Amino acid sequence: MSRVSPSSHEASLRMARVRQKGTSAEIGLRKALHAKGMRYRLHVPLLTKPRRVADIVFSSTRIAIFVDGCFWHGCPEHASWPKSNADFWREKIETNRARDADTDQRLRSLGWTVIRIWAHENADDAADSIAQTIEARRRGGGHS
Questions:
Q1: 143 to each of 14, 62, 140, how far by Cα in Å?
Q2: Which helix or strand (DSSP H or E) is residue 15 part of?
Q3: What is d(CA 87, CA 92) in angstroms, rounded to the nearest whole number?
Q4: Collapsing DSSP states into helix, strand and coil, what is residue 128?
Q5: What's this model's pTM, rounded to 2 decimal places?
Q6: What is the 3-state secondary structure (H, E, C) of 64-101?
Q7: Does residue 78 lie in a domain region?
Q8: What does the pLDDT look like over 11-29, one tens digit per residue?
Q9: Is 15 domain-assigned?
């Protein structure tokens, strides 16, 4: 893997300021889940080597929620591929996608259900889907 850097010092500073926790999409989903009476844990490290942290966790049903930003995780609907320093950005986003797939596989092998929500998704619809998954797990449904 080549170690290309952002196109400028300013771009690097912008990247460092991007929120990893408490994004507007994550907060919207948390509010929608809370409004449904659902209680959860936040930013729980579920794997240690390599360290992977879920955004929202329902421990009793072993459900891990990740809220993925469209740009950073390469959303098929909204992802854009910057033209400036394109190799760096493509590598960065592809590395994120590979890490996401690895995380999902590792957690599923440990009996977790992994749900990935795109930042553009409607929070109420996502909360409804999560509630259905939790109910299915409680009834003894399978892993996803």
A1: 38, 9, 9
A2: helix 9-17
A3: 8
A4: helix
A5: 0.82
A6: EEEEECCCCCCCCCCCCCCCCCHHHHHHHHHHHHHHHH
A7: yes
A8: 455 444 444 678 999 999 9
A9: no
- How many Cα atoms within 13 Å fall on the side-chain side of residue 89? 16
Q: Does an H or E element contain 123, and which?
A: helix 123-138
Residue 113's DSSP bridge partners are 63
Look up the domain containing 35 and give its range.
29-138
Q: How far apart are CA 1 and CA 102, in angstroms?
A: 17
Residue 2 placed within a domain = no
Count of structural domains, the chain: 1
36-87 per-position pLDDT tens digit: 999 999 999 999 989 999 999 999 999 999 999 988 898 988 767 778 888 9
List, in sequence order, every residue forming a beta bridge with 52; answer none if it has no partner: 47
CATH code of residue 112? 3.40.960.10
Residue 72 lies in a domain: yes
Neighbours of 85 (CB within 10 A): 15
CB within 8 A of 95, min separation 6: which ones?
Answer: 1
